[in-house]
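User: Fold this, then the next.

Assistant: Folding the first:
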Amino acid sequence: MSAFVEVYRALERTDVILVRSFLDSQGFFTLLRNEHHITQSSEFLSLALGGYQILVIDTDAPEAKCLISAAMKGEFQLDKDFDEDELSISLW
């Protein structure tokens, strides 16, 4: 049986939303711990609860941590000559 382990923690909600969205886009199943406790308390409990925590399945944790580290180093940045107009947004 698989367990969930923490791969990222932050005090700011926007930080965990960005990291969680990135992991979701890479195909990981994620859970966000403390989200409701903190948001319902006007974020006063963030420090006391240790912030928001992103959890993934234990077997996915090493790869998720590696991808987060690479993203923080800027390895997923778009090229400077990236032209958004050339991007196809077709859903079909």
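Now the next one, as you asked:
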Amino acid sequence: MTPASEAELGRYNVRPLTPGPESALRDAALALGAGTAGLPALARHGRAEAFAVAGLAPDECRVLGRELRRLGGEVLSSVAGDRALLLGPLSAFGELPSRLTAWGRRTEVLGAALGAALAGRGSRPAPVVAGRHVLRFDRRTLVMGVVNATPDSFSGDGTGDDPATAVALGVALAAAGADIVDVGGESTRPNSSPVPEEVELARVLPVVRELAERLDTPVSIDTRKAAVARAALEAGAVIVNDVWGLRRDPAMAATVAEAGAALVVMHNAAEPEYGDVVEDVCAGLHASLGLAEAAGIERERIIVDPGLGFGKTPAHNLEVVRRLGELRGLARPVLVGPSRKSTIGVLLGGAPPDRRLEGTLALCVLAAANGADLVRVHDVAEVVRCLRVADAVLRGTPEEILALPRPGPTG
């Protein structure tokens, strides 16, 4: 066969639509002019899905294989039958949960887990209510600004024991566009020394109280201690940001439940031995969600955080950002805190915290592209501007941009 010329190839203008924006297939189908009649075919053929599953009993694995193959998919399983990779069209996974129900309670629960993961994978999370504030994740990537009311912050921005300086910083972060102002009174840098409860309370309470009074922005308390969380909530905070994900202070879950506060649960581990770091992070966050449920904290109030830099090597941190989309299976909003982290310093040849802005911006954009709903940062103004541009690509062109004319023949 004579090789086709560029002119011949160009006639067909073949374009791969996957991977790409999830709207690309739908838009291409609608552009054919036949209305919505062809859209069901996209679910059958236009989008493949893949899910990793662990904790299976051998009989569950056999049932999965049988039902998914009937729906046009495939199951790849471990020798022991306890782990599997599920492959198939979107339509198969939409129908699979109901098929599994017929096999008994265990497979019914498995089907529910798959259904929740599919829902989390396919749509932005519902809003989270935090006091009188509503955090919406469908419009743009939200930004949490950091107020370190400590003298020993790793990032060099600690305000020491001066409440006025901390309040001024919080006000400035809100003015710069922060959607949440996060106040902490104990450094969580590697090898930091624990702070006595009374010291932490003295640092954060006046700051939280004044910020809650002055700002039309929700205030969160960054603490691992239930007593500090309780006092901060009484002072006006509406979110608890627990770097131990309810797994350090036994009273924390009950404190959050009693206050009706919103909650960030972060993955952390004192002496981790990871197999697959992302799988282990997801398992740890599932455990935190279980503790929250047992205490009566509604799932709809919870945000999850994979904990970059907490019990993880630089290679682990990069792997988590690269595979952040897997956390969508938790069906909760995802918060990522890449700001000024030591991993950036390593990548930039030993750059100190105050020279890590570009790396922070890069990780914020990559996190947003890979599924983050919020980022926690020190440099709020710069990150807000950066994400405004990134979100215009990732989440759709803003209405005000659509109406603009072309600038001219040269650009």
